[in-house]
């Protein structure tokens, strides 16, 4: 089937019915207070919906409902094969509604429709399917006991999981939490970002249609930190899972300490080094990947390759190739299927990105392309992909996560220096290495303090690979069977025979 044209997407956008209420016990409901907040599209500023602004009163309702569903056993004690079949139906319903969900995502946070439809949606569906498929493949353990003892080591669902997610991949980040949380038998209260609440609200209905019992999956949109904080402080939330900024992540650990010591699992920020050695097998391929690593999703990616470390001997040659490749990434209307750089999520994010560009100038980095807002006449929030050369790792643009398409090029002279610069950051989410030397690749990979390392590519891996960070990029892992660690408690049952 051919992809709809921009005109067709715009027509669909004009007649789209958008759900804006919270979802509790299998039904949509206004916030207890009746309050709403405006949800605007960064494409042109249009008002998409007035979304329920939940607060502590809604958190009370949703958590009580999730707890009751959990205790009833309607999901938590359902036979694995049945839970699996329902989750597969859920994944299938996301797939069946892929164009509607992609459109919602693009309107809500500005990413190109082609990415929403061909990257985010398939990845979200794959995640749910993969976790569903694992349900009846995971065995518990029998301990090697003496003859008169039987030792069982079993995994149990933790109970009520609160999931707080960001706006850059709203549906996919939600599914990275929902997939293993629901597969393990928990009840979930999902809090989407106030900047991108729409797909989370839509899939809640699909979950119930698939057969997930009311109360097992609730969604609470809210403005600012109010409802997220209420969930993080709630005494009946057993586990809090989060993707977002390191600043918020630290606050959530405090909330857990101030309340019930709920388990807290954090996927936070990054400032990932992309290291190109002079012996890289294909400099053009490396340059193409480096451009994609900072331009894809407008640079609003936790693993964005925002520090490009290039061996000094090839630096000028490489930057020339890089600038050619960056030219292929130009902002355009997000509903145009040909667009590969969409709108930033909102004016506030644009202001942040422009402030970092100003800081790059102020600290003496050399601007090689981009450097400002574009397409302002559309009313949308667009910024040109920006490359700074001559950056030192001490500069603000090299130290702080920008979350926009702004790349810092840093030269190095030796593998030791590359590793030292790469690791000189509070973050440790991802890194990439380009070299033809097997030994250099492995030695450098070992030395890098990052949760994911990619060699001769950027952003490798799939649902089989654990994803998460070292240092202030977080703890625990999403994806793969390791993700189930977040959503289960281990129990040792010892029987005297
Ligand atoms: P954010 O921390 O501002 O917000 C994330 C979520 O937390 C939102 O739902 C927000 O409403 C909520 N929140 C904010 N303050 C809160 C508080 N005090 N208490 C409870 N909830 C609160 O992050 P963001 O701007 O939405 O997302 C961008 C960040 O997410 C970047 O730092 C990026 O690196 C990170 N991110 C990380 C990963 C990863 O897997 N490591 C993936 C995507 C994004």
TrEMBL record:
<keyword id="KW-0560">Oxidoreductase</keyword>
<protein>
    <submittedName>
        <fullName>Aldehyde dehydrogenase</fullName>
    </submittedName>
</protein>
<dbReference type="InterPro" id="IPR015590">
    <property type="entry name" value="Aldehyde_DH_dom"/>
</dbReference>
<feature type="active site">
    <location>
        <position position="267"/>
    </location>
</feature>
<dbReference type="InterPro" id="IPR029510">
    <property type="entry name" value="Ald_DH_CS_GLU"/>
</dbReference>
<dbReference type="Pfam" id="PF00171">
    <property type="entry name" value="Aldedh"/>
</dbReference>
<comment type="similarity">
    <text>Belongs to the aldehyde dehydrogenase family.</text>
</comment>
<feature type="domain" description="Aldehyde dehydrogenase">
    <location>
        <begin position="35"/>
        <end position="492"/>
    </location>
</feature>
């Amino acid at each position: 089937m051919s992809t709809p044209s921009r005109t067709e997407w715009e027509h669909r956008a004009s007649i789209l019915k958008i759900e804006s209420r919270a979802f509790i016990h299998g039904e949509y409901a206004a916030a207890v207070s009746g309050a709403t907040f405006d949800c605007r599209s960064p494409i042109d500023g249009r008002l998409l919906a007035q979304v329920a602004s939940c607060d502590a009163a809604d958190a009370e309702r949703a958590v009580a409902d999730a707890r009751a569903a959990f205790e009833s056993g309607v999901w938590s004690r359902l036979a694995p094969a049945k839970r699996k079949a329902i989750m597969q139906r859920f994944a299938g319903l996301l797939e069946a509604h892929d164009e509607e969900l992609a459109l919602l995502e693009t309107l809500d946070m500005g990413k190109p429709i082609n990415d929403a439809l061909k990257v985010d949606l398939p990845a979200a569906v794959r995640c749910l399917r993969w976790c569903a498929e694992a349900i009846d493949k995971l065995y518990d353990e029998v301990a090697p006991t003496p003859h008169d003892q039987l030792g069982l080591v079993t995994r149990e669902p933790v109970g009520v999981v609160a999931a707080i997610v960001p706006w850059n991949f709203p549906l996919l980040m939600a599914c990275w939490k929902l997939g293993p949380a629901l597969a393990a038998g928990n009840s979930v209260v999902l809090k989407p970002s106030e900047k991108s609440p729409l797909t989370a609200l839509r899939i809640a209905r699909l979950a119930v249609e698939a057969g997930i019992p009311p109360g097992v999956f609730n969604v609470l949109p809210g403005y600012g930190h109010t409802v997220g904080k209420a969930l993080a402080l709630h005494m009946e939330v057993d586990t809090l899972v989060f993707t977002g900024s390191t600043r918020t992540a630290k606050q959530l650990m405090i909330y857990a300490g101030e309340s019930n010591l709920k388990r807290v699992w954090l996927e936070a920020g990054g400032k990932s080094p992309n290291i190109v050695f002079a012996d890289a097998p294909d400099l053009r391929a490396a340059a193409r990947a480096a451009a994609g690593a900072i331009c894809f999703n407008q640079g609003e990616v936790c693993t964005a390759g925002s520090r490009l470390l290039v061996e000094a001997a090839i630096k000028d040659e490489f930057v020339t190739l890089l600038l050619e490749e960056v030219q292929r990434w130009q902002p355009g209307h997000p509903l145009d299927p040909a667009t590969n750089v969409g709108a930033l999520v909102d004016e506030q994010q644009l202001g942040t990105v422009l402030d970092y560009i100003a800081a790059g100038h102020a600290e003496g980095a050399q601007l090689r392309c981009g450097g400002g807002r574009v397409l302002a006449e559309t009313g949308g929030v667009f910024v040109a992909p920006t490359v700074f050369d001559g950056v030192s790792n001490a500069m603000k643009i090299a130290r702080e996560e920008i979350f926009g398409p702004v790349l810092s090029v840093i030269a190095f002279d030796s593998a030791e220096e590359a590793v030292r610069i790469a690791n000189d950051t509070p973050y440790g989410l991802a890194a990439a290495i380009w070299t033809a030397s097997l030994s250099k690749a492995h030695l450098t990979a070992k030395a890098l303090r990052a949760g994911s390392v990619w060699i001769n590519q950027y952003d490798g891996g799939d649902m089989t690979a654990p994803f998460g960070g070292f240092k202030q990029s977080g703890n625990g892992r999403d994806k793969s069977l390791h993700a189930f660690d977040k959503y289960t408690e281990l129990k040792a049952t010892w029987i005297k025979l």
